[in-house]
Amino acid sequence: MREAALGNVMVDCDDERKLQSFYGSLLGWEQCELYGRPAVRSSAGVVFLFMEEPDYVRPVWPEEPEKQQKQMHFDFQVDDLPAWVKKAEALGAVKAKAQFGGDHFVTLLDPAGHPFCLCRA
Fold first, then answer.
1. Per the structure, how many domains does the chain have?
2. Within this chain, do residues 85 and 96 fall inside the same structural domain, yes or no?
3. Which of 36, 31, 34, 35 is nearest to 18 (CA)?
4. Which domain does 103 fall in, by range?
5. Residues 51 and 61 in one domain
């Protein structure tokens, strides 16, 4: 058997169209439909699918006892960190109150509350 290849990343949320629009606009990826789900696809073929869950609970970051914890987060390498942070905020992201990246990365929360980092390339 050969190694498995990553197919898609499924992202749970409370508003799948809003998150599709956010990541499509932020990353410059194609907004499309795959497997009956709103999705975004990079030119290299990386796909994020969005699944609206009726009982979705926003994660809390940094983690707190007895609160919904994050299950994962994305790190995106960018060429101009301040410009990308500004773009993300204009699209609806919020800079996390706790920052640990110094000049290397900034942690933000997407419109569904998922933390993600913009990292200096």
1. 2
2. yes
3. 31
4. 57-121
5. no
Same domain for 51 and 62, yes or no, is: no
Look up residue 24 and give its amino acid.
G
Instruction: State both tokens at 110.
Output: 């997407």
pTM of the model: 0.90
Q: Compute how many other C-beta atoms are within 10 angstroms of the C-beta atom of residue 14.
A: 16
Q: What one-character-per-residue DSSP string does 37-71 give? A: EEEEE-TT--EEEEEE-TT-----SS--TTSPPPS
pLDDT tens for 77-115 read 999 999 999 999 999 999 999 999 999 999 999 999 999
CA 107, distance to chain mean position in Å, is: 11
Structure tokens of 59? 């994660």
Question: Do 119 and 71 belong to one domain?
Answer: yes
Q: 78: which residues sit within 8 A by CB, 6+ positions away?
A: 84, 118, 119, 120, 121
